[in-house]
Amino acid sequence: xxxxxxxxxxxxxxxxxxxxxxxxxxxxxxxxxxxxxxxxxxxxxxxxxxxxxxxxxxxxxxxxxxxxxxxxxxxxxxxxxxxxxxxxxxxxxxxxxxxxxxxxxxxxxxxxxxxxxxxxxxxxxxxxxxxxxxxxxxxxxxxxxxxxxxxxxxxxxxxxxxxxxxxxxxxxxxxxxxxxxxxxxxxxxxxxxxxxxxxxxxxxxxxxxxxxxxxxxxxxxxxxxxxxxxxxxxxxxxxxxxxxxxxxxxxxxxxxx
Length: 257
Fold this sequence. Notes:
Layout: H1 13-41, H2 48-64, E1 67-73, E2 84-87, H3 94-101, E3 106-111, H4 120-126, E4 130-132, H5 140-152, E5 156-159, H6 177-185, E6 189-195, H7 197-200, E7 211-217, H8 231-246
Parallel strand pairs: 1-7, 2-5, 2-6, 3-4, 3-5
Antiparallel strand pairs: 6-7
């Protein structure tokens, strides 16, 4: 078996050309078709069918892009339990990887501009994804109310605490939203380390390079064990738990305002 944590040769140019063609074609055509299906089944309670369609979409993107995924999951994770997942973010491929491999139903907090895309954005809303307007922090209360609602429904919520895709191997400073959500809901934080997604597709590039992406779901971390006074220690622990499996430098610890 190929070790995803070791450097691998660059894919042959013809494989990159093929993956770029088929992967982007699926992103346009497949996304449109499955978005419509998601909207049609979104009325079914608890969003079980909608999430099933999201998984089909995610696996379709990965297959069309000639991307393999290796999953490492902590035995401490309990199937069917709600968690607040916090993951590093380096590529658009992080999203299909997480949707395809998450243990149980998962909804993401995503930037508002994605919800403005016709059909695709409507499907995100219908599927229970949560819009976040980073340019208008006055809407944060509404976004977190929706996140709490998803958690009460028995699903998990995922955030990218860096707030944007990293361009190198350094983990960016974390925003505090995911930690506040976990502390107020009383739910454990699951650190998620993704490795190899930036090599598949870098930020700002349409080229897709076939390869292996490894995702590691770490052991749950109870925020109640830290409390408000030790929040910085909690953030530092989560950063280390993400950076290790992701092969990233921890960089500056702390949080944005």
